[in-house]
Specification:
198 residues, 5-stranded mixed beta sheet, 8 helices, 5 strands, elongated
Length: 198
Amino acid sequence: MKYRISNAEIKVRNNSEENVFPKYTTQLINLANQTAQATRPKAVGQLSELFPLFLQETDQISLENWQEWYEERYPEAVDKAADRIYGQIEKLREAILLIDREMIRRWVKDLIIDKTYNGLYVQKVILSFLSEKRGEPYRLSSPEEEARGIDGYVGDTAYSIKPSTYQAMDRLPETIDVSMIYYEKTKSGLVIEIDEED
């Protein structure tokens, strides 16, 4: 059996007013928040754990009671998060004034031309290096394999090749179940780290 719950009914069941924001503002606030990390659990608490606690501790479930319960435990969290995000918005406001069409064109070219060439060329260099080292053939991945996070093969071993900075990017949700190669560009060439190597 399938059931549908309309937005209107959700609103009635939550007993809450829907916040309406002007067009594009929430995207900018989200971007500023990601950079400022203002609503991370260490700043505002682990909400997915706090809300169930609230539900256990009260039989008076309402938006107002949740706000009161939360603010007793984190009295300054909302204001501190808002201040951090606002500071980042001010930086974005300054940066957006620097953006003109020529800068956007350079950014698009860098993304499509430069980064694609550099990324794919680095993959080829690393795979051919490993191929020669191991005495096995290499190949770049097919589009289907690439969609699964595979950048290429040496012999029968599938590899995903990422810049070393990728390891620090905790916001990426993807899981890649192949051998990883991390590389760093230096003045003298490439430093590569292979997770399967001894």
